[in-house]
């Protein structure tokens, strides 16, 4: 079995103070993908940077204007055969938004897609990222298939694909994260004739609202389960066919949260 978990930690140093380390010590995942780490490895304590039982690789935001933001990481039980930062586009290769590693028969990636904000440069950046990333995703899947490998791209995609993927979809139709053009882009990623990937959680829960993975800290969003499903585990079709379980590790109470996101986990048969 292969068990993979993805979580936006909303600042790894803060998460470590709130409960991330006990969660990591308790998980039996083979791979953990982290997003929004917001710290360079030298800023982390040894316990957080190099947790027992894991091989950890970090890709922080290197641009001075972006330090303290973004950042992704991969934790694997087995040492990766190879690691690559970025996807070959100069603007984003040092932005702390994409990191991939090769394991036996599998390439796994941690993604933190820009969040965007309508009418601002942040949305322009998000659109440039998406335009450059889709061709890479297709190339990655095709290259892996030629080598007899599967692909997993896990992370905070910052797009709710369907109405079932956020509680208040009517109020968010003009907001970044649920714009028609963003949803259409994600449809292309998941189109067998285009990107060719599968949304593993949705494939196993086709008729469910959610399961949501992000809830604002404002108001009572968590208590009311007024959330968004934007943390996705996306895989090549062959691996998706082996998925036997996928779920969100939603905390039992607001007080037990160590991020505004919850871990998303998928389990695959051999």
UniProtKB/TrEMBL annotation:
Domain Endonuclease/exonuclease/phosphatase, first and last residues per copy: 6-261
A UniProt-annotated Pfam family: Exo_endo_phos
EC number, UniProt record: 3.1.11.2
InterPro entries named in the record: AP_endonuc_1, AP_endonuclease_F1_CS, Endo/exonu/phosph_ase_sf, Endo/exonuclease/phosphatase, ExoIII-like
Keywords: Hydrolase, Magnesium, Metal-binding
Gene Ontology molecular function: double-stranded DNA 3'-5' DNA exonuclease activity
Cofactor(s) needed by this chain: Mn(2+); Mg(2+)
NCBIfam families for this protein: exoDNase_III (TIGR00195), xth (TIGR00633)
Protein name in UniProt: Exodeoxyribonuclease III
Source organism per UniProt: Streptomyces durbertensis
Gene for this chain: xth
């Amino acid at each position: 079995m292969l068990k993979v978990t993805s979580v936006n930690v909303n600042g790894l140093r803060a998460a470590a103070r709130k409960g991330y380390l006990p969660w990591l010590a308790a998980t039996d995942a083979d791979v953990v993908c982290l997003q929004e780490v917001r710290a360079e490895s030298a800023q982390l304590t040894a316990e957080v940077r190099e947790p027992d039982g894991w091989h950890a690789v970090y890709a922080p935001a290197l641009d001075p204007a972006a330090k303290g933001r973004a950042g992704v990481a991969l934790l694997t039980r087995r040492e990766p055969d190879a690691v690559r930062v970025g996807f070959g586009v100069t603007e984003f290769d040092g932005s702390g938004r994409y990191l991939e590693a090769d394991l036996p028969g599998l390439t796994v990636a941690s993604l933190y897609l820009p969040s965007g904000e309508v009418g601002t440069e942040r949305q322009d950046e998000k659109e440039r990222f998406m335009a450059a990333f889709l061709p890479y995703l297709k190339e990655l899947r095709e290259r892996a298939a030629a080598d007899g490998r599967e692909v997993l791209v896990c992370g905070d995609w910052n797009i709710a694909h369907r109405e079932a993927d956020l509680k208040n979809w009517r109020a968010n139709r003009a907001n970044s994260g649920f714009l028609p053009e963003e949803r259409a882009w994600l449809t292309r990623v998941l189109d067998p004739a285009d990107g060719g990937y599968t949304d593993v959680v949705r494939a196993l829960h086709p008729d469910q609202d959610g399961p949501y993975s992000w809830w604002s800290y404002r108001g009572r969003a968590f208590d009311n389960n007024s959330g968004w499903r934007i943390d996705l585990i996306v895989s090549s079709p062959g691996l998706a066919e082996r998925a036997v379980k996928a779920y969100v590790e939603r905390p039992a109470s607001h007080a037990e949260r160590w991020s505004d996101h919850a871990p998303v986990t998928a389990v695959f048969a051999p």
